[in-house]
């Protein structure tokens, strides 16, 4: 099973408006979680694995099917990092009401000569779970284009890793806040994040300027 990766920078119009939940709909007793969605050999979503390690077969709720007459397409035998609104029934099947993709690329250093853009955003929350560094970010945007990604900016000699949020407004105006889900896979850095090491995340925010969040292994 391969983990999906993508280009370092995302060209959005606008990916941050990625929630497919129906704003006016009142859900039944459900849970909202970051999770991994796995597809089978036919490219059909087959199970949802939560960050606590539990995995459940999935079915789409009627409400999801009504909102998505044409279901999203997925690659075969692939794990997608998602934010899911689901109901876990007595049959241990996860009934899906909403699936939102996350920005989940593997951070790499910027090529020589490429500028690190850090246009400001709002950082709502950040935490570790399930082998990922997860975050909720809000971007002031209307309907234009932004370039988004995670950059490996680890300084020489650091015991651990440092990742920086890349954000460049290409063609947009600051308008209302739009939510962006981020989830950095840490498995590729297992050798560089040992016990006692530091994981640092750097992001430029409207309210706190350059904000550095640190986690210790």
Structure description:
- It is a single chain.
- With 217 residues, the protein is mainly β.
- The protein folds into two domains: 23-101, NigD-like N-terminal OB domain (OB fold (Dihydrolipoamide Acetyltransferase, E2P)); 122-216, Immunoglobulin-like (Sandwich).
- It has one helix at 62-67; strands spanning 2-3, 10-12, 31-39, 45-50, 55-60, 78-88, 94-101, 122-129, 132-141, 145-152, 160-171, 176-185, 198-205, 209-216.
- The longest helix has 6 residues, at 62-67.
- The protein starts with a strand and ends with a strand.
- Global outline: globular
- Distance N to C terminus: 26 Å
Structural class: mainly beta
Mean of residue pLDDT?
Answer: 87
Number of DSSP strand runs: 14
Provide a count of the helices: 1
Under CATH at level 1, the class of the largest domain stands as Mainly Beta
Tell me the CATH architecture of the largest domain: Sandwich
């Amino acid at each position: 099973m391969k983990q999906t990766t993508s280009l370092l920078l995302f060209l959005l119009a606008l990916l941050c408006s990625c929630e497919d939940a129906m704003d006016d709909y009142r859900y039944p007793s459900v849970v909202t979680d970051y999770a991994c969605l796995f597809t089978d050999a036919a490219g059909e979503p087959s199970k949802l694995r939560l960050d606590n390690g539990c995995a459940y077969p999935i079915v789409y709720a009627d409400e999801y099917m009504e909102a998505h007459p044409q279901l999203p397409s997925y690659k075969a035998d692939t794990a997608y990092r998602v934010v899911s609104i689901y109901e876990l029934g007595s049959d241990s099947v996860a009934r899906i009401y909403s699936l939102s993709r996350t920005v989940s690329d593997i951070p790499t250093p910027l090529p020589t000569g490429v500028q690190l853009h850090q246009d400001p955003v709002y950082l709502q929350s950040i935490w570790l779970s399930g082998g990922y560094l997860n975050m909720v970010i809000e971007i002031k945007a209307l309907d234009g284009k932004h370039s988004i990604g995670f950059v490996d900016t680890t300084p020489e000699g650091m015991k651990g890793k440092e990742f920086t949020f890349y954000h460049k407004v290409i063609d947009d105006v600051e308008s209302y806040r739009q939510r962006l889900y981020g989830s950095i896979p840490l498995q590729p850095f297992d050798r560089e994040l040992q016990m006692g090491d530091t994981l640092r995340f750097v992001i430029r925010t409207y309210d706190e300027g350059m904000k550095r969040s640190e986690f210790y292994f």
